[in-house]
Amino acid sequence: MFINHLKGAIRNLLKNKVHSGINIFGLAVGFAASLVIFLFANNELTYDAFHKNAESIFQVYKARITPTGTQITRDTWVPLARELKRQYPSIIEATRFWTNTDWVQFGDRRFQENVAYVDPSFLKIFTFPLVKGDANSVFSDIHSVIISQPMV
C-alpha cells in the first residue's frame, strides 16, 4: 500500500514540476527559517547558563535617546552598582565590568591583550572555573589578575 502511495506522489511531482518545485522550495525555506529561529532562541535562553545562580544574574542597560533614535547600551555610570545595592535590598551582589585593550608586561615581554576590569564581587556572581588559585583570594590587592585558560 505504501509503495502505491509513493509511486502516485512521484508521478504527481513529475507531472506538475513547477507547482511541485515551488512547494518544495517553500517547505525548505520554512524549515531553514524555523531552524535559524530555534538556534537563535536557544542561544539567547542558554547564554551563560552554566553559572551556579544563572537565573538570578541580570544585566543593567540603558536606553540612550539620540537624534537618530533610541540606542540601547550596556555602559552605565561607575557609581551605579553601589547605588543599586544601597537602594534595593533584594540585590545581593553587584559588579562592574569594563573591557579594554591594554599593554601587559611579563618579565621582558610586553604585549597588547584584551583586559577586563571587574570588582571583587565578580567571582561571587559568576562561577567561572579557575585553572589555578582560589576565587576568594584572587582580589587580595589592586594588582590581582586572573588569566584565562586560552592564555596559558
Q: How are the SSEs placed, and which strands pair?
A:
Blueprint: H1 2-15, H2 17-46, E1 62-66, E2 69-73, H3 80-87, E3 97-106, E4 109-118, H4 122-125
Helix pairs in contact: 1-2
- Overall spatial form: elongated
Share in β-strands? 15-25%
Distance from N terminus to C terminus (CA atoms, Å) equals 64 Å
Number of domains: 2
Helix and strand element order? HHEEHEEH
- Structural class by SSE content: alpha+beta
Oligomer: single chain
Which regions have little confidence, pLDDT < 50, spanning 5+ residues? Answer: none
Report the radius of gyration as a whole number of Å: 27 Å
Strands, total number: 4
Largest sheet: number of strands, sense, barrel closure: 2 strands, antiparallel
Mean pLDDT: 86
Number of helices in the DSSP assignment: 4
Q: Could you characterize the architecture of this molecule?
A:
The N and C termini lie far apart (64 Å). A hairpin with a 2-residue loop joins strand 1 (62-66) and strand 2 (69-73). It is elongated, with a radius of gyration of 27 Å. The protein has helices at residues 2-15, 17-46, 80-87, 122-125; strands spanning 62-66, 69-73, 97-106, 109-118. The protein has 2 domains: 2-46; 77-151, no CATH class. It has a two-stranded antiparallel ribbon. Strands 3-4 form a two-stranded antiparallel ribbon. It is an alpha+beta fold and 152 residues long. It contains 4 helices and 4 strands, in the order H-H-E-E-H-E-E-H. The mean pLDDT is 86.
In short:
This protein is α+β, with helices and mostly antiparallel strands. The protein has four helices and four strands, in the order ααββαββα.
